[in-house]
Amino acid sequence: MRRLEEAALDASTCTRCRLSQGRTQVVYGVGDPNADLMFIGEAPGFHEDKQGEPFVGAAGQLLNQLLSEIGISRQDVYINNVILCRPPGNRDPLPDELDACKPWLDERIAIIDPAVVVTLGNWATRYILGRQVSISRVRGQRFPWSSRTVIPTFHPAAVLHGGGQASNQMTALRADFQEIRAALAERPQPAEEQLGLF
Ligand code: SF4
Fold it and tell me: Using one digit for the tens of pLDDT, what is the confidence trace for 20-32?
């Protein structure tokens, strides 16, 4: 399997779908290539497209804050989106765009091999779980997925738009991050895996 930087370099010139025409750059992902925890959002927005990094701006700051509250730094996780190029006007990606970008996501997950995958918002959750679910119903729960654990939660941008730090959504988001921390603490450790205990 090739290394993450090779995959990112390859993706940086991707023209598999029409989103290549309007992007400033491909927004591949950021963080630790060996992370046990991966966050998956929807698609780059305006600032992400300009800066080439996912989850910058207010939503990114909230994500950093939530990570800090459970004792994890942004550098220790991997953050990316289902779609690598900004859809025009931040519209939802179209089915053929998702199909075109899926191999890049599959490859990132295979290379990074995270134990816990957190989907942010309805959209990424439905894409990863492969079914029509409501984020308010499934948030904070653990779902087994390809030998990993998926934990859906609200998208930080949605929480900021829906009332911010004092909202019920923010309380729920905080509770979900405690669940993320618990799932990470319970993941099989390498020594245990080698002993065949899991
Ligand atoms: S969105 Fe994905 S598939 Fe489409 S051009 Fe960008 S990197 Fe390629």
Answer: 999 999 999 999 9
CA of 54 relative to ligand 1 center, distance in Å: 15
**In Å, how far are 53, 79, 94, 128 from 46, measured between CA atoms?**
11, 17, 18, 24
The DSSP element (H or E) to which 116 belongs, if any, is strand 116-120
Give me the mean pLDDT over the 152-180 stretch.
Answer: 92
Q: Which domain holds residue 163?
A: 4-182
* Residue 26 CB less than 6 A away from ligand 1: yes
In the chain, the number of structural domains is 1
Q: Is the CB of 27 under 6 A from ligand 1?
A: no
What pLDDT shows up at residue 110?
97
Specify if 190 maps to a domain: no
Distance 12 CA to ligand 1 centre (A): 9
As given in the structure block, the two tokens for residue 69 are 């509250």
> pTM score, two decimals?
0.93
